[in-house]
Specification:
single chain; 415 residues; alpha/beta; TIM Barrel; Immunoglobulin-like; 2 domains; 8-stranded parallel beta sheet; 5-stranded antiparallel beta sheet; 28% helix; 20% strand; binds alpha-D-glucopyranose
């Protein structure tokens, strides 16, 4: 390695440190699409809420008119940050500009932004950055760098604009970059710029990444700035939406996920996953080495839907007891077990019992270390459970019943 690649690697390791510990973050999809909330001209538009402009091929002039109606007077940055904090989430990523092109921040590059085009007139990103600073939660921005259905040179809108006439490099240089500069200058430290959909060419992707890192060396660049396989473009790999890989994945990665079936608010999507399912997904992802970025889609009034708030609060309650088995851990040493999953720290193994067995015991496959002591994480006395080795592993006798029916965590001290 040359000195330069050493330095690049060092900078990357440095900016990844908090993220590797953090494991659980909040995604927020909020924009004009919260007004139609999945319905356009009286008809339900299928698909995810923030894609309504595209799915219904809404002309720019018609969609723009939503801005005059956007007045989320119930928005309270401190409340939102508290929801994230109580859930045990360590960072927030909010849509600064989604594919519809509407800017949820104060920008000089277009009047099509929340401060200039709406009766609300406030900059929610600014308010969130202040609330996050106070609560020591990190804040990052989703920014759609490729698709922009409002800007004539952004990609994706072929019903208002002729795709042949688009000048995408001009859009990148004269619009995307100056906006990124605003986001990386006016809001304090930015945890991540969450690019999406992929930049058309690897050169453009690398160029955007370097631009971000020059402005804020500590800001992470998400996997979808370019194809993750292109070694070294992004800081970490982004899985597909709601995608959980079948087994352990090496390297840094994240699963962005929904609580119901949409990112942006839809009035009629009530398909909420249960708290138990969400905790299992968190454990599953962390047991395979990943981070979980779980989405909320606030309404046009500025509130996070109650079903989301309730579930997040319950996740936070579980994490208050069991957080040690999540934060700062790495993937467990063995693959999916019938009874559950495992996460690890250098001197401890966490056995997450997701399906309590009738047999009263679990079998832990042999791995390269020896188990010294086993106790339930929720037991303040750390009273040891009985265990014995047998061929190919260790058998642990469980307490009479599950301490938490969703996930009872055992700690195995290892040598
Ligand atoms: C997809 C969608 C987008 C959403 C994102 C979240 O790429 O295009 O609407 O923001 O997934 O992961």
């Amino acid at each position: 390695m040359t000195e330069q690649t050493d330095r690049i690697q060092e900078a990357h390791e440095k900016r990844m440190a908090w993220w590797r510990e953090a494991k659980f973050g909040m995604f927020i999809h909020w924009g004009l699409y919260a007004i139609p909330a999945g319905v356009w001209k009286g008809k339900r538009v299928p698909g995810i809420g923030e894609w309504i402009m595209y799915r219904a091929r809404i002309p720019v002039r018609e969609y723009e008119a939503l801005a005059k109606r956007f007045n989320p007077v119930k928005f309270n940055a401190e409340e939102w940050v508290k929801v994230a904090k109580d859930a045990g989430m360590r960072w927030i990523v909010i849509t600064a500009k989604h594919h519809d092109g509407f800017c949820m921040f104060d920008t000089k590059l277009t009047d099509y932004n929340i401060v200039k085009a709406t009766p609300f007139k406030r900059d929610p990103l600014k308010e969130l950055s202040e609330a996050c600073k106070k609560e020591k939660i990190k804040l990052g921005f989703y920014y759609s760098q490729t698709l922009d259905w409002h800007h004539p040179d952004g990609l994706g809108n072929d019903w208002d604009y002729d795709p042949e006439k688009k000048n995408f490099s001009k859009y990148l240089e004269e619009y995307v970059k100056p906006q990124l500069r605003e986001l990386l200058t006016n809001y304090g430290p930015v945890a991540v710029i969450w690019f999406d959909i992929m930049t058309p060419t690897p050169e453009q992707a690398r160029n955007l990444r370097d631009f971000v890192h020059e402005l804020q060396p500590e800001t992470l660049v998400s996997g979808r700035v370019g194809p993750w396989r292109e070694v070294g473009i992004a800081d970490y790999r982004e899985m597909g939406d709601n995608e959980i890989p079948p087994g352990k994945v090496e390297g840094d990665w994240e699963t962005p996920a929904t609580i119901n079936d949409t990112w942006g608010f839809k009035s009629y999507d009530h398909n909420w996953k249960s708290t138990g399912v969400l905790i299992h997904k968190l454990v599953e992802i962390v047991s395979k080495g990943g981070n979980y970025l779980l989405n909320v889609g606030p309404t046009a009034e500025g509130t996070i839907p109650k079903p989301s708030v309730d579930r997040l609060r319950e996740m936070g309650e579980w994490l208050k007891v069991n957080g040690e088995s999540i934060y700062g851990t790495t993937a467990g040493p063995f693959p999916e077990m019938e009874w559950g999953r495992s996460t690890a720290k250098p001197d401890k193994l966490y056995l997450h019992i997701l399906a309590w067995p009738d047999t009263g015991q679990i079998e832990v496959p042999a791995f390269d270390r020896e188990i010294k002591k086993v106790y339930p994480l929720a037991d303040p006395d750390r009273k040891s459970l009985k265990f014995r080795s047998k061929e190919g592993g260790t058998v642990i006798d469980l307490p009479e019943k599950a301490i938490d029916p969703v996930d009872t965590v055992l700690v195995a001290e290892i040598e």
